[in-house]
Amino acid sequence: MKIYADVLIVTSCLVEFIYLHTAAALLHRKLRGGRVFTACIFAGVMSLLICADGGTFIGALLITLTKAAGIVVTLLIAVKVKGFGDFVRCLAVFLAIRAVYTLLIIVYWEISDAKRIFVRNFTAYFDISLLKLAAALITAYVLLSIVETVKRRVCSKAVNYEARFQCGDYEVTLPAVADTGNRLCDSFTGLPVVIFCCDDMYRHYALDETESGMRAGFRLTPYSTINGIGLLHVTSKGNVTITDDSGENYDIRCCVGIKPSDQNHSRAIFNPALLE
């Protein structure tokens, strides 16, 4: 089969795009467009391994190691991992997804009379015109968007939450709101921040005085949520537990941000991804 480099690279980029977004959906991660684009381009270049000669043991070993390293680098480019344990979890999910999709490709290749797929050196080449490929991609994107929209509207349900903050003998429990827009992370620890809008907590730590807040271990951080924008007093002290209306508790590994309540309406704001 004649292999065209442009078709090979473009199709590999598209396939990698599907791999990454499927992994992100299962891991409940939000990918950044720039990182995904770079990762897909890298994977597209790595697909040129299909042309390498793996007829000898050394050649096959080098191809295998290069492909394995390429998969790891692709994942690290696209996904921001939070530590070694998180990396292992992400890699396991990513490899599982690749295995499932590869199995589907091989099955289709075996049953296809036209033999439109060529597999070599862990790389699949789709013998299809770029125009047809673009049409298939647009169709798949539209269908997935429709399915995701229907899923959100049909399957979503209102859940009530409570957030409990405990630091030593001091404890506060507030109604909590799940806000996907709260992506604030502490610049020192890298941990996500759960925001407590509470006058009692604000007065308890005397956060109206900057020096008192600094002595208590707080630092000022800009924020933006459904509750507004401004400066937030953030600390890594204390423990946060989120409880849903079914009584299930989630111990959250996070930092805590404290600000005055809005019109005496105390509540906590957290990203629902923290519950996954």
TrEMBL record:
Membrane-traversing stretches: 6-27, 34-50, 56-79, 91-109, 129-147
Gene Ontology molecular-function annotations: aspartic-type endopeptidase activity
Keyword Cell cycle applies: no
GO biological process assignments: asexual sporulation; proteolysis
Protein keywords: Membrane, Transmembrane, Transmembrane helix
InterPro entries for this protein: SpoIIGA
Name of the protein this chain belongs to: Peptidase U4
Organism of derivation: Ruminococcus albus SY3
